[in-house]
């Protein structure tokens, strides 16, 4: 009998070479990685919910096997599901987008605007 | 797909070797390919950060412009947008590897058994345990893929290839087609259009991996004998089994080092490599090209699909961003190969400079209507737009 691989541990192995860190504080990067992994798992659950809803709508009942085999059945369904991922990611990474907008169009602070408005 | 969304993972072509996936494993791949696509937009912000913050700050401090990639790296590394984009991208690539390995490794034994059933007794798979994995492959795990192409977790392992085959869709956000063969298809179309009279009898694909890019060539030239070589046994086992299941009869997969093949002089009409040379090494690349020259018949064609070379008119920023992928997605030789002049590389092996050719190629993608990918924000090193160089041996 062949020994089973410890695939759970092996799947998360690191690759060769020192891991690059980009934030000044490695702890930030560690937390970011954990957060993004959780974000991914929430997306997985949401896609599963969507599958269950569609199966229930269509069949009035659902089995685990139905869920495991479910794939979107029409281009509309594909689009709806991918749009959800796209919207979701955009929501999770909102602050990054907002900072990007700020860079592209640097703004006054609200305090400065308050002073401006005071003169209007 | 509207709004430039990525295709769903289940559009990937099914064949006997493709790992089975649970609902959630497919969903995880869908999340990751969407995240990858999103990051291309975040990458655009890195350029803005460079122009609006990094460069002005450097000028203020030094009274002059950034002059090289070392200075650029030092300056940009302090920028918060660069930091978040970089850490998100690295994290996404690590998650992609984790997702692919977790679904592949849990079925390592059944994948191995499927491959061995398809491969058994076939003369078109020639493994040679005497072949040494080249040092340049042992030195790094390309694409931060733990264990790289060659590591066997069990006897007869095929998991490195199964992980690669199922997950490259995610890395490229679905831009290279249902069979991951957008590069092979593009080169086949180009050769047929430009050399309609070319009837190669014997074709060699070097560094074939799991053979995804050689199959379109095999399909286009069904009467040709095609040999695909690689040093990674797991890739060849999987690739051969995959080709068998897909009905290809004219491709022989052989375990061999591209720098030291066993073939006779001038025995091939066409020698092809696709995204291979940048995963070799600074000395090996010349040895491999010597071998290509030796093996090619007079009048034979050789083509190599690669990322663009660095040219003098390319900005330091673009060079830096291309290096980013090479270094942080672990394809380190790529950051060095960028500076090689392909004309010199080929000339060093005996090709004549006047016979050198260079073309652009864009992936053909059967996952989307029309087969041509929409315009995307420039995402250095990720866009399936390639540089192809080569020559006809005179």
Instruction: From the alpha carbons, calculate the radius of gyration of chain B and give it in angstroms.
Output: 21 Å
Main-sheet strand order of chain B equals 1-4-3-2-5-6-8-7
**Structural class of the helices, strands and pairings of chain B?**
alpha/beta
Largest protein-protein interface: A-B, 55 and 66 residues
- Domain unit count of chain B: 2
Instruction: State the end-to-end distance of chain A.
Output: 84 Å
**SS content category of chain A:** mainly alpha
Number of helices of chain B: 13
* CATH level-two architecture of the largest domain in chain B: 3-Layer(aba) Sandwich
Mean pLDDT of chain B: 93
Query: What is the chain-wise order of helices and strands of chain B?
Result: HHHHEHHHEHEHEEHEHHHEE
Beta-strand fraction estimate of chain A:
under 5%
Q: Helix content range of the residues of chain A, please?
A: 55-70%
Give a short synopsis of this structure.
With 120 residues, chain A is an all-alpha fold. Chain A is built from six helices and no strands. The longest helix of chain A has 34 residues, at 26-59.
Spell out the key features of this protein.
heterodimer, A: mainly alpha, 6 helices, 0% strand, B: alpha/beta, 8-stranded mixed sheet, 8 strands, 44% helix
